[in-house]
Specification:
The chain has 205 residues and is mostly beta strands. The chain contains three helices and ten strands, in the order βββαββαβαββββ. β1 (2-6) and β2 (11-19) form a beta hairpin. InterPro entries: Oaf, Oaf_C, OAF_N.
């Protein structure tokens, strides 16, 4: 799992590489990309991180705050060849997931208002369109379409700045940036797949 954030473009990209089960007819690995809007208060700007050097950078760290699970319905597919209009980084980050790049309709509306070309987005089938559409874990036929779920956890990311207080000779108290607060957060993504064969991990959940 890799998380990429691009604050100036207000885009957040999750890339997951899932090892395939060759005995079940899968390829060596399967790649997924989930793209959502990045809100400005979600992560610390890179300029601040560059200024706040941490001691022992190679240390394996534990998150100081565990944030709640976010459940997202990824109901839109993103065309890989046109994705550079949304973010120039999609070409590199999602190269192995060309047919499996997903986003949400509510995020698409935000990007359209910013002038992004809507032709790169395709609304995926929903249960309202296909009444027989089931969750993949409930679907017995491996070749039928279904709604797949994929869960992941970001174990450590810089979510907030820390502020310390100092007192000058006159006793006046002031605050200054003195570190980074880390968070852990889990996500579950639901999205349409044309056949359950593309979502076999969902059988065990």
């Amino acid at each position: 799992l890799t998380l990429f954030t691009y604050l100036c473009q207000e885009v957040k990209i999750f890339r997951a590489l899932i090892l395939g089960e060759l005995e079940r007819g899968q390829s060596q690995f399967q790649a997924l990309c989930f793209i959502t809007r990045l809100h400005r208060n979600e992560i610390i700007p890179s300029e601040s991180m560059a200024k706040l050097r941490q001691k022992n950078p190679r240390t394996v760290r534990q998150a100081e705050e565990v944030r709640g699970l976010e459940h997202l319905s990824m109901d839109v597919a993103v065309n890989f060849s046109k994705g550079a209009q949304l973010s120039s980084h999609i070409h590199n980050v999602c190269a192995e997931a060309k047919e499996a790049i997903y986003t949400r309709e509510e995020d698409v509306k935000f990007w359209l208002e910013k002038g992004v070309d809507g032709s790169m987005f395709e609304v995926l089938p929903q249960t309202s369109d296909l009444p027989d559409l089931q969750r993949c874990r409930l679907c017995a036929d491996r070749w039928k379409p279904c709604i797949c779920s994929y869960s992941l956890s970001i174990e450590w990311y810089p979510c907030m700045l820390k502020y310390c207080k100092s007192r000058d000779a006159g006793g006046k108290v002031s605050s200054y940036k003195c570190g980074i607060r880390s968070c852990q957060k889990g996500y579950t993504f639901d999205y349409y797949v044309p056949q359950k064969q593309l979502c076999l991990w969902d059988e065990e959940t």
